[in-house]
Amino acid sequence: MNEAQFQRLIQLSRKTESPLVILDADGESSVLLSLNRYEDLVNRMKPAFKSAPVPAVSPAKELPLTPAKPLPNVANVLDEPGEVETQFYLEPVE
Known about the structure:
The protein is mainly alpha-helical. It contains 4 helices and 2 strands; from the N terminus they run H-E-E-H-H-H. Helices cover 37% and strands 9% of the residues.
């Protein structure tokens, strides 16, 4: 298709207000619309998802600070005999 033929197709598409489907050299199709028609389509589209409400967050200054409890010594817990071995026993898989 030469440039003159392509321009005639574009003019016809504008005159009839219909979309124009074109193919590139690889056979990929595209649709040409007038800008007004495209804007109308975009304005009529529904959003893909609703935005989640933003939770109200207080600034960190206003939060009461309480000291954390000290963590137990992990080495002492693992050294205690008995409970650790039976707590995590796994059966062999055949």
